[in-house]
Amino acid sequence: MIAYNFHAASNGARGEANGGRWELALPARGHTPALAGGTQGERLSAEIETIRRLQVGADSSEARLLTAVYVSLKTYPCVVLSGKAGAGKAALVQHLAAALAGPAPGQFIRIGSARWTAQSGQRDYYRDLHTRFGDSQLSEVLSEAQSPQGAGKLYFVLFDGLAPDELFHYLHERLRLLPVVTKPLPAPANVLFIATFHQPNQLSVRDAQILAHAYQINVTAYRRQPPQLPPPPVGLQRAMIRDAARDVVEARDRLRAVFGGTQLPQLSPSAHIAGFLRWYGLSPDTTLDGDMWLFLANSFDRHGNGLFVADPARNLQIAYDLRMVQRVMARLDPANASLRPELSRAVGC
């Protein structure tokens, strides 16, 4: 039986961030638990508990989708959830924030679209006012996240239903997260940016180029009401910040440890994914570059547990297929944009 250590209920999620004590059967200082062996108690980790919380009440497709979003956020601080309006993208983000941070005030902010200003006779005035308010919200959360009091907490910024030009303003002009011209600036490790984009059937070439620079996950359908969860265990937020691999050398070391120092299994698209891509004449980007190394490594926790499934080789294949399909979706020309839901279903989410 797992014993949780909670602060007083009124503390919400603030206690677990400051405490940072979460780990099941935490090994003694200086001892590294075996990745391929050991007892189940030695192998349980904060990230496995996070995945369990994310998957409460989820079917298999939703569970894989939630895990894919989590692994993507470990790898890169900004993820774009695309899809039709009403697909449940905002509900997914709210559930993610609740599972990791609980109902903590100030750790989840929403910046909406300024499309409503188009109905006003003073469109430019209200749009500028709306953007200034969004920039102010963003500055406040970045300042708090980088303060000593916020260092062990996770902050979620939801850009909800933004148009491509709005995404470009926040993700590139304001945060410099998109490598459009130069290498992106590093974001605070404890701030996660998620944008929801109501994608039409057809995208302009310019808009597709903007989205191609961000991690993009298509959401076809998600439950509307996030489940009720108890407060997160102590230190759960700090564990995600600590365990995310953001360095390629670290990523390779983690994967090497998972597979006992031997070479990785031969990586190529799964048979059903390869067949799907051939049918539609799509050529995948199978380059095993730094981006792919990071995504594959982040699909495991620091003890070598797979976050998608327990079996290491199968977990690696699922992560490889997902990241490869994300790349294919980012490169789809506007005429093939309607294939996104089918690609999502092909990888099981």
Shape: globular
Can you give the mean pLDDT?
Answer: 78
Classify the secondary structure makeup into a structural class: alpha/beta
Approximately how much beta-strand content do the residues carry? 5-15%
Named CATH architecture of the largest domain = 3-Layer(aba) Sandwich
Main CATH class of the largest domain: Alpha Beta
- H-E string: HHHHEHEHEHEHEHHHHHH
Question: What do we call the CATH homologous superfamily of the largest domain?
Answer: P-loop containing nucleotide triphosphate hydrolases
* Low-confidence runs: 1-43
Distance between the termini: 31 Å
Helix fraction, binned, reads: 40-55%
Largest sheet: 5 strands, parallel
Write the layout of secondary structure elements.
Layout: H1 14-19, H2 40-43, H3 46-54, H4 60-75, E1 78-83, H5 89-101, E2 108-112, H6 123-145, E3 155-160, H7 164-174, E4 191-198, H8 205-211, E5 215-218, H9 236-243, H10 248-258, H11 271-279, H12 290-298, H13 312-331, H14 340-346
Parallel strand pairs: 1-4, 1-5, 2-3, 3-4
Helix pairs in contact: 3-9, 4-12, 10-12
Fill in the keyword field for this structure.
2 domains; five-stranded parallel β-sheet; 8% strand; Rossmann fold; globular; disordered N terminus; alpha/beta; 349 residues
Describe the protein.
This protein is an alpha/beta fold and 349 residues long. The protein has two domains: 47-218, 3-Layer(aba) Sandwich (Rossmann fold), CATH 3.40.50.300; 241-346, no CATH class. Helices cover 44% and strands 8% of the residues. The protein contains 14 helices and five strands. A five-stranded parallel sheet has the order 2-3-4-1-5, sandwiched between helices. Strand 3, helix 7 and strand 4 (191-198) form a beta-alpha-beta unit. Helix 3 packs across helix 9, helix 4 (60-75) crosses helix 12 and helix 10 crosses helix 12. Mean pLDDT is 78; it is low at 1-43.
